[in-house]
Amino acid sequence: MQHLSGTLSAVQTSTLSTHNALTQASRNLSRTDFLLAGLDDNPLSSLKIVQ
Description:
- It contains 1 helix and no strands.
- The protein has one helix spanning 2-37.
């Protein structure tokens, strides 16, 4: 039972780390999209990211 508890704790920590990494990546993508949209001659500026 102790081993199972330790495993669950490790999985929880791993899941939290993954969530934080994905959240940070999402913020970076949003920031990049905003910067790209600011360029007049950028063909990507007309594209909208569906949230």
